[in-house]
Design goal:
Helices cover about 25% and strands about 20% of the residues. The protein is built from three helices and three strands. The chain has a three-stranded antiparallel sheet, with helices on one face.
């Protein structure tokens, strides 16, 4: 059964999914592309066919593109600079007593 018949619609009307693949156990998932599919199951099958043709990969994630929320790179200072100004979070801020070992 073709994808068009299964979904009952035109492929251009299908939602866009982002595809993430984990190459090997212990590694993180990496974004490898986008594809249109009628539902998450079809997105997984298409992602397998398109992005793991050579047998690479141990795990596939698909997520609707409109469900991903990301920060704006222009907000970098606002988001990450405050953490750097909190010197009490750095272990070098504290004076350790002489009798403390293995720290």
């Amino acid at each position: 059964m073709s994808d068009d018949k299964r979904s009952g619609g035109n492929e251009r009307d299908w939602p866009l999914f982002e595809v993430f693949i984990r190459a090997r156990t212990g590694l993180h998932h990496r974004h490898c592309g986008s594809l249109h599919a009628a539902d998450p199951e079809m997105a997984l099958a298409r992602a397998r066919d398109v992005y793991t043709r050579r047998g690479e990969g141990t795990s596939i994630w698909v997520v609707l593109s409109d469900r991903i929320h990301a920060s704006d790179p222009a907000d970098k200072d606002m988001l990450f600079e405050p953490a750097m100004s909190k010197i009490y979070r750095h272990p070098s801020f504290y004076d350790l007593p002489d009798d403390v070992e293995n720290m």
